[in-house]
Amino acid sequence: MVDNESFLRDIISTQLEAEGYDVVQATNGLEGLEKANELIG
After folding, report:
1. Distance between the two ends of the chain, CA-based, in angstroms?
2. How many helices (H) and strands (E) does the chain have?
3. Domain boundaries, the chain
4. Which of 9, 13, 27, 30 has the fewest CB atoms within 10 Å distance of its CB?
């Protein structure tokens, strides 16, 4: 979940986790790409 607004990240992440998804949060696109690369590494 990539968004610069922590409030929105938390709300959406909570909803996705309730649906059974594993969620990783990032504050911007670059951080999101770095975290994605770590996960698929």
Report:
1. 18
2. 2, 0
3. 6-40
4. 30
Give me the residue label for tokens 């998804």: 21
Structure tokens at 24: 């990783």
Q: How far apart are CA 34 and CA 37, in angstroms?
A: 5
d(CA 20, CA 16): 7
Residues 6+ apart with CB under 8 A from 23: 1, 13, 16, 17
With a threshold of 0.70, does the pTM exceed it?
A: yes
Chain segment 1-34, per-residue pLDDT in tens? 999 999 999 999 999 999 999 999 999 999 999 9
